[in-house]
């Protein structure tokens, strides 16, 4: 099963900076305006490493990765960043308001490093497909800085409530970090360094499959990075000893960028060595890292934030579909064609909120305006399945997003997969949807129910993945809170 270990995190020195000024949202939800704002907020904001801006940095697009590496080295030198001296787990509490309902939620996660495994091994399960371009970008950054700046968001089963019990024991202690970010989310962080607690947490994962909630591109980037580093290491050692056959008998010197390196005595890859005892996330004193077997190295692991499936603060928002007015479509013709597969019922605007909140068990919503809202319920499941790809698990056929895609968007609205970005907008915010409709930017919109964690788990364990834009886990974990240096 999964191998999740404690690690010595790289963290901000809170004697030098305020955490609320230096953390940032994940790179993939940062707008250009937000990026500029983070740059201006603090010269040590993690945005300068996570999403380096060539225009603001005075470098080329390809040069931004080396610029990020330069920032990381400089900040280490100035002791803006430091490395913990022992391997720990880290518990992160997020207290936040539901973005659309009047209620407050608390979510907890434990940060650790997970051994990255190919999906074919059925240890780590994805729940959606990825695109190539973000992985190329993240891969170049990882090769340059050799550090996970933000975690992959994982889900796991914790029937014995191990994490919840440890969390309760920590509440009496002062957290190492306590701040409110610019989304009004309170973040508190505790270090878990007790041998018994570390053993308890590690043992939970030894018996569990792990599911990616968010951060698929980061995980697949880590997989590719590990494969490249292993291959480069073997090649470098083979060059040094003369033949690949002798590699297994060699204890290599410190490995750096695919070659055996002549390093400064107290530096590795341009950074101060964080440890003097040979353990930790960096090669030290001419030996492999003491914490890992010869078969594994620090780059075989990635930073993860692990949340139990049954955490009461685990919030999954639905992602609604807004059909832009860029298509050629007729409202009356669409309504008539929908009746072939669905029972249509006019509903008041308030029922759309009920659908989005998960209070409706069957059907999904459609609207042309706040005054024209409908509930669509499937007439015959077997006929619908005939119009969808064969060989999928039963839960997959029941997903609202699949019914909309295969029974409406492509056959009735004539929007192919290649044209989705041009004609469809996605948002978890019902209010935003109706703004698009009111402004005339949108022809119509479809409102879906939230997907349950059970349905995600059941679909993923069959080897299937969810359609893209099926889930929105809220809130995202910040970048720069704790980092894992390879």
UniProtKB/TrEMBL annotation:
InterPro entries: UCP033563. It comes from Candidatus Danuiimicrobium aquiferis. Pfam families: DUF1015. This is DUF1015 domain-containing protein.
């Amino acid at each position: 099963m999964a191998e999740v270990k404690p690690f010595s995190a790289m963290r901000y020195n809170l004697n030098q900076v305020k955490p609320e000024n230096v953390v940032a949202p994940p790179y993939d939800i940062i707008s250009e305006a937000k990026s500029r704002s983070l740059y201006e907020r603090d010269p040590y904001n993690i945005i300068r490493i996570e999403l380096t801006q060539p225009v603001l940095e005075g470098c080329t697009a390809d040069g931004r990765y080396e610029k990020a590496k330069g920032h990381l080295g400089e900040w280490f030198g100035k002791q803006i960043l430091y490395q913990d001296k022992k391997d720990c787990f880290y518990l992160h509490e997020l207290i936040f308001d539901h973005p659309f309902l009047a209620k407050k939620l608390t979510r907890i996660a434990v940060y650790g490093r997970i051994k990255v495994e190919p999906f074919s091994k059925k240890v780590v399960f994805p729940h959606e497909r990825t695109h190539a371009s973000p992985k190329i970008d993240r891969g170049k950054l990882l090769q340059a800085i050799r550090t996970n700046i933000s975690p992959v968001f994982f889900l796991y089963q914790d029937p014995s409530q191990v994490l919840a019990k440890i969390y309760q024991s920590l509440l009496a202690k002062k957290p190492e970090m306590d701040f409110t970010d610019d989304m009004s989310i309170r973040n508190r962080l505790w270090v878990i360094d007790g041998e018994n607690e570390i053993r308890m947490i590690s043992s939970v994962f030894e018996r569990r499959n792990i599911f990616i909630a968010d951060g698929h591109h980061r995980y697949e980037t880590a997989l590719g990075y590990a494969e490249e580093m292993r291959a480069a290491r073997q090649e470098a050692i083979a060059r040094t000893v003369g033949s690949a056959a002798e590699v297994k008998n060699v204890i290599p010197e410190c490995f750096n960028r695919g070659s055996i390196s002549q390093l400064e005595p107290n530096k590795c890859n341009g950074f101060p060595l964080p440890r003097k005892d040979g353990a930790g996330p960096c090669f030290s004193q001419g030996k492999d890292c003491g914490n890992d077997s010869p078969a594994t190295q620090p780059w075989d692991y990635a930073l993860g934030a692990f949340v139990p499936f049954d955490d009461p603060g685990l919030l999954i928002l639905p992602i609604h579909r807004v059909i832009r007015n860029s298509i050629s479509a007729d409202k009356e013709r669409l309504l008539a064609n929908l009746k072939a597969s669905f029972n249509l019922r006019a509903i008041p605007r308030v029922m759309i909120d009920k659908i989005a909140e998960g209070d409706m068990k069957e059907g999904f919503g459609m609207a042309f305006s706040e005054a024209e809202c409908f509930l669509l319920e499937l007439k015959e499941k077997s006929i619908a399945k005939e119009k969808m790809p064969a060989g999928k698990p039963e839960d997959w056929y029941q997903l609202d997003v699949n019914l909309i895609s295969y029974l409406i968007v492509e056959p009735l609205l004539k929007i192919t997969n290649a044209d989705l970005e041009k004609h469809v907008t996605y948002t978890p915010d019902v209010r935003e949807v109706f703004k698009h409709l009111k402004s005339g930017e949108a022809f119509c919109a479809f409102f879906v129910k939230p997907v349950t964690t059970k349905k995600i788990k059941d679909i993923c364990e069959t080897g299937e993945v969810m359609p893209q834009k099926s889930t929105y886990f809220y809130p995202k974990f910040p970048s720069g809170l704790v980092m894992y240096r390879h």
